[in-house]
Amino acid sequence: MESSGVDADVVIAGAGPTGLMLACELRLAGADVLIVERLAGRTGESRAGGMHSRTLEVLDQRGILDRFLAIGDAQPVGHFSGLYLEFDESESRHPYPLMILQADIERLLEEWAVELGVRFQWSAEVTGIAQDDSGVSVELGTAPAATRTVRARYLVGCDGGRSAVRKLSGIDFPGTPATMTALIGDVELPELTEDYVWVRRCPTGDWSAIAFEPGWYRVIASEYDRVAGRDEPVTFEQLRASLIRLAGTDFGMTGPRWVSRFSDAARQAAQYRAGRVLLAGDAAHIHFPAGGQGLNMGVQDAVNLGWKLAAVVTGRAPESLLDTYHSERHPVGEQVLHNTRAQSALARPGPHTDALRDVFSTLMESDDVNRRLRGMLTALTVRYPVDGDHPLAGRRVPDADLKTAEGDTCVYELLHAARPVLVTLNGITEVAAAADGWADRVELVDATSEDDYWFVPDLDEIPAPAALLIRPDGHVAWAAADGDPIDRPALRAALTTWLGPARQP
After folding, report:
1. CA 498 to CA 479: how far, in whole Å?
2. What is the pLDDT of residues 20-62, one digit of tens each?
3. For the chain, how many structural domains are there in total?
4. 198 lies in a domain?
5. How far apart are CA 53 and CA 381, in angstroms?
6. Sorted alphabetically, which Pfam families does this protein's record hold (predicted)?
7. What is the pTM (predicted TM-score) of this model?
8. Could you list the residue range(s) of the whole structural domain that residue 223 is in?
């Protein structure tokens, strides 16, 4: 930090998965971070229940995935609106969803954040925001009748669907209202005779009972055309009553650990950035939680934003780099809202929807349909609008096996430090020469590919490139095809766009 009046380079509101991941990304890149959280501490509520392939990959890119694999359980199938969806082992080293409760995800990310030096302030609710040319002042309500103001260069709202940061910044949150209510809870069901109930359809909705831990079930009771009040309390008795209406019994339900509610309301922030204030995760988008995409999209927001924001606050890149956060992530959010609206419609009760589900289920037997749908859920097919016509440009880089002078490695190991990496795969010296003005901001790696072809989920196999510039988030900023001459102006343009202007060696 440069000035005595700044408490942190970045203040993050919200200590959930998105805020924690963002804080870690910022710390890896050298930014000073303070997380403020309105809650007094962890609630232990399980909430979201899994992570998809792309989220597993970004954790692998940082070298911490083993912590999550050690306590999670990989599942070989997923679903689209309750219809089973198959995954393809060729698309990723981590092709299957990992079943792991949000409480465990938060615990592991918080441990990593502490290791990296992230600071926390609990029981601190954002109550006011004031921006100026040099930073943002954040007013925090820390106790009854007590307030504190912290000063930062930037503020990021990761504070959920009812985000105080979004509201105080005047950012619109347009979308579609709820048409149904779902109650969810972790309970005991001593009279349930089945080990697992998945989307049992009923005349007014559907219910599921998923055994996450021995003796405990996650019960989800969804009723259509019943919309709860926004501030209506959620109780165990409401969950019991809803299950009785749907299933005709509560299966002896007892011992609730946690009860909550969700709906199919879908809204997205009109802009992800307003000056020195940015939004990520549920603060930027809410939707029907079909396919478990919410937590994953929030973590991926954080990985897209983190390196950019760190580069700006540490002076390595111009502020204009932050505009690409909205231009890249807002369309991704739009697509997720679109597919979750479709899944909500496909889940509605009634004979017409039953017929539609039968037809849709038959279509999902097609490999092409399966691939298209799992690409939506896993985010492996996300492509950002970067310059260049190479098939990898803008896409997430495959985790190809490589050989270097130091020994065997793979692409994702090169990204552990969260720095841009410029890889040459056939000893082209002019690549390094073209990047000379960015030597302080990019890692240069000379390697050979173990495979002649790399697999890209929505393209199948493509020839291994001759060279590529990989952003810290694992997306390709520039690539050259093997056998083609190196386009030095295009490489230098990509370096300038994503790393800032060249400097004298």
Report:
1. 14
2. 999 999 999 999 999 999 998 887 777 787 899 999 999 999 9
3. 3
4. yes
5. 11
6. FAD_binding_3 (PF01494), Rng_hyd_C (PF21274)
7. 0.96
8. 180-263
